[in-house]
UniProtKB/TrEMBL annotation, chains A, B:
<comment type="similarity">
    <text>Belongs to the acyl-CoA dehydrogenase family.</text>
</comment>
<feature type="domain" description="Acyl-CoA oxidase/dehydrogenase middle">
    <location>
        <begin position="163"/>
        <end position="267"/>
    </location>
</feature>
<feature type="domain" description="Acetyl-CoA dehydrogenase-like C-terminal">
    <location>
        <begin position="479"/>
        <end position="581"/>
    </location>
</feature>
<dbReference type="Pfam" id="PF00441">
    <property type="entry name" value="Acyl-CoA_dh_1"/>
</dbReference>
<dbReference type="InterPro" id="IPR006091">
    <property type="entry name" value="Acyl-CoA_Oxase/DH_mid-dom"/>
</dbReference>
<dbReference type="Pfam" id="PF12806">
    <property type="entry name" value="Acyl-CoA_dh_C"/>
</dbReference>
<dbReference type="Pfam" id="PF02770">
    <property type="entry name" value="Acyl-CoA_dh_M"/>
</dbReference>
<dbReference type="InterPro" id="IPR009075">
    <property type="entry name" value="AcylCo_DH/oxidase_C"/>
</dbReference>
<dbReference type="InterPro" id="IPR046373">
    <property type="entry name" value="Acyl-CoA_Oxase/DH_mid-dom_sf"/>
</dbReference>
<dbReference type="InterPro" id="IPR025878">
    <property type="entry name" value="Acyl-CoA_dh-like_C_dom"/>
</dbReference>
<dbReference type="InterPro" id="IPR052166">
    <property type="entry name" value="Diverse_Acyl-CoA_DH"/>
</dbReference>
<dbReference type="InterPro" id="IPR037069">
    <property type="entry name" value="AcylCoA_DH/ox_N_sf"/>
</dbReference>
<feature type="domain" description="Acyl-CoA dehydrogenase/oxidase C-terminal">
    <location>
        <begin position="277"/>
        <end position="447"/>
    </location>
</feature>
<keyword id="KW-0274">FAD</keyword>
<dbReference type="InterPro" id="IPR036250">
    <property type="entry name" value="AcylCo_DH-like_C"/>
</dbReference>
<keyword id="KW-0285">Flavoprotein</keyword>
<protein>
    <submittedName>
        <fullName>Acyl-CoA dehydrogenase</fullName>
    </submittedName>
</protein>
Length: 584, 584
């Protein structure tokens, strides 16, 4: 009953009109062979893979889950062969450098691929979700011999990496981790300790697994300044098993097809990545990429929630609606999508899904520019903006994913609560994204404390400039003037909030922590406003008869009609939070 | 790890101070033998039963679920013996009339019992949840011989009733139902048709089951005016099986220990309850009671979400907080409950749980007065107010239950997502309450269209008067003046909204449907404001050193500090909704 169709038409709209990516590609030497038809060919292929191979395994993978036996983990039926098809299609290599066997395509294309993977089968995509981050981490911090030895295997998909941070006592606070690494005489290390909640820590998709592990050297300072990063393969080059084993799987609310492992490192041999005690910096290369990916999970959940609600609401007849579209005759009962409460939900689902898509892809496009733009200032600004957007995308998108899945479930009524329609699975799967890779509360603190206040508003100023530029451009077209004016107002509000926070924090240093969550939500809503103001403006490039053009204007209209209440809520909450919070 | 403690102290506070129930009981002949110590003795007993018998079956029941085999349903291990203990304790009889073997206690006590049942084991409590409603329905609409025959069995718990409304094509819209009843020569009827999503439609807790079934007579008008209500026992008096069978169970997101049955009526013998074609009116007696119960589920979920988050947040150490309580020394990491984002969640959980408790119990107390008050006007007003509160409690409480369970899960971080801590079960269980017994969207329409606009504001005027009275009383105490003023403002806003809706609806008849959801939320927040304004005021009756008194003032302070943003959101949304919603 649950189904997924890759939204290729909207993806193309974002690439071609919202981002005008082909023009940027032409300006970068790295992508000068790429054009829109080629990019769309890649996405069409990815669409077929996700629709035909992954989506059919979504429900069955949830029902079957993973099984652990004597340290070995079996993934659900079909997962391993789907992975082989993924490798054969060259998908792990999509955005990796050509010198290492990759396809050298932009991260923008990878973002679209990731959205499709997560939308069609979140649990399956957990196995591949960290690949690009691990590639980046090793490429930027690994010793040359480590790169030579392992990067080609990662790029080809022969092995899969993991990210081993969490320990029972150290979740959000990696500074508390105890896993230790003892130096050996040959330059390698022996790792000892327990890691928890390790996605893909053990599985049957690949022969070998590369664990990227945070641990402490014997003489390391305490806290987060004494953490180093190690590469620990499951199998050593002589084919022998390394000293790491999976001693159990978590039973979880969702993503049941993803093996969430408890790992024991018992003298496992590993190699340092980057400098001693600088593990967090190396890990953050991977983590930033992972956070963008997690945001794209929220986008994927919202997209499937929207697709499935839309289809069901058109088919299910219940009660008469107060109004029908012109020319439609009354029957014994109307389809759900005529009822006002359901129309609001559907319009919101579409506005959230399409609105977030442009923003998520923009962040990926900025990462491409940060790496490949010719002009150094363009590179620097793109990097700063991408850093700023990352926590917003991670937290705002994942909260949307959960909320919109719940809204979609509500459209199905009782049928939404039974497993047959699988929207309940989407809701369960979506919930984890608000927690892992830094909980949404951590993202909110990262955004306001570090990314906005921490750099004295430099990156934030770049974002405001982007918003104001869009408001200026929108002002030229009569249908967009209202949207442009709303966006301009929003900039002013946001700038005023930041000024006020700076001021207030001098007297009340807890204030930014109290408002961080609402500030992040406000930024998220602002990004959606940018998304819809620009979508409405650039939809002019579509033929007047194109239903996508009408749909974009309709969604923008809806979004801006209901924008004031969203702003009112978060702006007022930022004021409410001037009151201190009691210790309970 | 998950645990439940009956919040007896707060229940007593609501009974004694918030409602001043003992004074009301003394004025009703029906309850003049009841006093507070006796009432608390009953609740303590109920607390022991739910903590010691039901709570330990909550997780195991979820893991095991129900099993169907050849028409027979087995409930999870322990459910049947827990039911026997419930019957032996006389709990089904709590609020039923003494003439029928009941204990004749107020519905207020039953509300507290229900909260504990749902909080400790929602799935189990599904089997008993409809008992009081079925009792009321049969007592008010059943023929004398039907009452004589079946009421004592219901009151004693010998049989359990069901409510059979839904069919595959008829969910929210019972007017679409097709199940038919053919009259026989002996005054009984033969029922034919399929019913879906029937909670407790088949199980192993009792020998017999009494199905209350909506069906159509052969000459019935179409739509909802042609529906009649029938009593259809699973077993006939000769011990033979009646023509009704369970042909399957739903696999659901949650409440897995509750048997959600698909029933086939194949010439089952039944008897008419009430008049032909007046089935909806008879069913609504049961439905109104059920809706209040569902609201209490939301309260129960919020309460366990709060208890478990509170405990975990005090124990789990992660990262340093920006501030600590005075005199507390910094350690390597602080407990979660020092971190501002977590403090806000915890304060909100407590304010929601305790705030809703007073309102939910107030509704039950009003039902007692509607039935037993000496003065006819008191009875009438109490009934009108209870009718008005019912959809608010059903929808607002259940949405809170789901949201607060999600907030609580977030406190647990990754541990919240694994089954071991069972807060993920609370989240899954809570989600159904937003759907069944009339979806929350149906409640919103019922509230605004029928209960507020439909009676020209009479019942709504009674509510405003209650709110204004509280605002007046609160004005007398300096610590409550701010709360009282906020409540008064809220009344004015709410009254203005209703006036505006009446006006606007003349030109735009869809407008009330577009704002119904936000209007209901606004009413819910207003009821919480009433709850906290009164709690703060009446907490003066507690000794100054009583931590409950300090806690009530702290919660009221928090609630009113953060009230403006909640109001801003819903008030602005009601304005936003002046814009029409496109057909999508």
């Amino acid at each position: 009953m649950w189904s997924y169709q890759a939204p290729l038409r909207d993806m193309q709209f974002v690439f071609e009109h919202w981002l005008q990516a082909p023009a940027t590609w032409r300006r970068c030497q790295a992508f000068d062979a790429l054009d829109l038809p080629l990019a769309m060919q890649v996405l069409e292929e990815a669409g077929r893979f996700t629709q035909n191979v992954l989506a059919p395994l979504n429900s069955s993978g949830d029902r079957q889950g993973c099984r652990w036996r004597a340290g070995h983990v079996s993934t659900p039926d079909g997962f391993a062969s789907a992975y082989q098809a993924y490798v054969d299609g060259g998908w792990p290599a999509l955005a990796c450098g050509e010198a290492l066997g990759g396809q050298g395509l932009p991260q923008l294309l990878d973002a679209a691929l990731q959205e499709m993977l997560y939308a069609s089968n979140h649990a399956w995509a957990m196995y591949t979700g960290i690949v690009y981050g691990a590639y980046l981490c090793l490429k930027s911090h690994g010793a040359p011999w480590l790169q030579e030895r392992y990067l080609p295997e990662i790029v080809s998909g022969l092995t899969l990496p993991t990210m081993c941070l969490t320990e029972p006592q150290a979740g959000s606070d990696v500074g508390l981790l105890r896993c230790r690494a003892e130096p050996g005489v040959d330059g390698s290390y022996r790792l000892h300790g327990n890691k928890l909640f390790i996605s893909g820590g053990e599985h049957d998709l690949t022969e070998n697994i590369l664990h990227l592990v945070l641990a402490r050297l014997p003489d390391a300072p305490s806290g987060s300044r004494g953490i180093s990063l190690f590469l620990v393969p499951k199998r050593l080059d002589d084919g022998q098993a390394n000293g790491v084993r999976c001693d159990g799987l978590e039973h979880k609310m969702g993503i049941k097809g993803s093996a969430t492992c408890s790992l024991v490192f018992d003298g496992a041999q590993g190699w340092l990545i980057g400098e001693a005690n600088q593990g967090l910096a190396a890990m953050f290369v991977m983590m930033n990429s992972a956070r963008l990916h997690v945001g794209l999970q929220g986008l994927g959940h919202t997209e499937v929630a929207w697709q499935n609600a839309r289809k069901y609401a058109a088919e299910r007849l219940q009660m008469r609606a107060p109004l029908r579209p012109e020319g439609v005759q009354a029957q014994a009962a109307d389809p759900l999508h005529y009822h006002p409460a359901m129309r609001r939900v559907l319009l919101e689902l579409r506005a959230a899904s399409e609105g977030m898509r442009a923003i998520g892809y923009w962040a990926a496009h900025l990462l491409d520019q940060a790496e490949h733009a010719v002009d150094p200032q363009t590179r620097q600004h793109a990097s700063q903006l991408a850093q700023l957007l990352t926590p917003i995308i991670k937290a705002f998108f994942t909260e949307q994913g959960f909320r919109q899945a719940s809204s979609s479930l509500q459209v199905f009524g009782g049928y939404g609560y039974v497993t047959e329609f699988a929207i309940e699975q989407t809701l369960r799967d979506s919930r984890i994204a608000m927690i892992y890779e830094g909980s949404n509360e951590i993202q909110a603190n990262d955004l306001l404390l570090r990314k906005v206040l921490g750099d004295h508003g430099q990156a934030f100023g770049l974002l405001l400039a982007q918003l104001r530029e869009e408001a200026r451009l929108g002002g030229d077209w009569v249908e967009c003037q209202g949207f442009a004016a709303a966006l301009e107002n929003l900039c002013n509000s946001l700038a005023a909030v930041v000024e006020d926070v700076v001021e207030r924090t001098r007297e009340d240093r807890e204030y930014p922590y109290r408002i961080a969550g609402d500030f992040l939500q406000l930024c998220g809503v602002t990004l959606l406003a940018l998304s819809w103001a620009r979508a409405a403006r650039v939809s002019r490039a579509l033929p007047e008869t194109d239903p996508l053009r009408a749909g974009k204007l309709q969604s923008a209209g809806f979004f801006f009609d209901y924008l004031p209440s969203r702003l009112a809520q978060h702006l007022a909450a930022i004021v409410d939070a001037r009151a201190t919070l009691a210790f309970i």
